[in-house]
Amino acid sequence: MTPAVAGTPATPAEVTAPPTVGVEEEFVLVERHSRAAVHRAPSVVATARGHLGEPHVTPEISQAQVETVSAVCRTAAELEAEVVRLRRGVATAAAEYECLLVPSGTPILGRPGPPPVMDKARYRAFLGRFGPLVHDQGVNACHVHVGVADREEAVRAVNHLRGWMPLLLAITGNSPFSDGTDTGYASWRSVVWSRWPLAGPPPYLRGTAHYERVVDQLVATGAAMDPAMIYWHVRPSPHLPTIEVRVADVMPEAATTTAYALLIRALVGCAMEAVRAGEPAPEVSDLLLRAACWQAARYGTSGILPATHTRDCAPASVSRLVEELWKRVEPHLSRYGDDRRVGDWLGDVERRGSGSARQRRVAALHSGSLQAVVDELAVSPS
Q1: Using CA atoms, how far apart are residues 135 and 130, in angstroms rounded to an integer?
Q2: Alpha carbon 324 to chain centroid, angstroms
Q3: How many angstroms separate the Cα of 52 from the Cα of each of 75, 82, 85, 256?
Q4: CB of 22 within 8 A of CB of 73?
Q5: In angstroms, what is the C-alpha Rg of the chain?
Q6: What is residue 129's predicted lDDT score, i.e. its pLDDT?
Q7: Mean pLDDT on 68-72
Q8: Which runs of E-coded beta strand occur in the chain?
Q9: Which terminus of the chain has a lower count of CB atoms within 10 Å, N or C?
Q10: Taking CA 299 as the corner, what is the angle to CA 137 and CA 243, rounded to the nearest 5 degrees?
């Protein structure tokens, strides 16, 4: 969909067609007997591309990781079918190399030594500039892209979205275990990822010119090699006409990935309406947002967070903040028939917690066995 530019009457198609949405998911490959991460991504990626198409399966920085890239979708049914297709296709390819495909934000049982970096010029340059930081990665996220054609609107919409990032992280944490231990966090992935110089909440941006100036200055410092390394939780995509939300851990199931992506699309829709109505976004400080994201990563759905989507940032339970989020997005979800799917998922999160709580329950049911957690999460090839 190409959104109407402010001041230009929308066509009937622009009023009724859902905005485009796409998902990128990262996974860890584990050896099917030991369930420890294994460095077989080059083979798995090559085989999976033969089944799914080269644009839809990509390597990541670690040879124990695989990323899927969905086609551009408009409806919930299209998106879920695409996520299922890609997950099953890569799981099938992984099985050919005695691997399981695991949607966990961190390698649950660890890795056999420092993960070798994929043999790509970009990743070799990463290693040269950032050193051991590169070897400490191998964590897995879920990125959602929502189509926004106008760059100025996208930049200003990010201001309205940035305050929701702590809550989104709290309800999507799926990485309590790492290297065979319980970290005590709901999202250990986000803590590991935050070690990159420019990972975290974005600053308040006063328009496209300000955004481009900030990006140019950050790249000039050497803390990023290019604009793609501005790893903000939400940003205008550096290479697509989209807003990209990058805050979540990879989700346990295709259905939860779909519901989360639809929630993000609705939240972007709310932000776009606010931009077009001339509503100012709360200028919450970067430091408060960063602190709130740490709190979300630590305690997940059981924590207390500042309401950083508001000006007073009053502390509230995650459950209360989810209620506020629902009131905000429900009209957009209902417009495209997505309200029940997202509502059911949010209700489940409120009752039983996010993926991190699920992982801990499985471990408890199996006398602390993390192998059982891996088996519970592993994507079935069929």
Answers
A1: 9
A2: 21
A3: 20, 10, 8, 22
A4: yes
A5: 20
A6: 85
A7: 98
A8: 21-31, 57-59, 65-69, 99-102, 141-147, 177-178, 181-182, 234-236, 242-249, 304-306, 315-317
A9: C
A10: 60
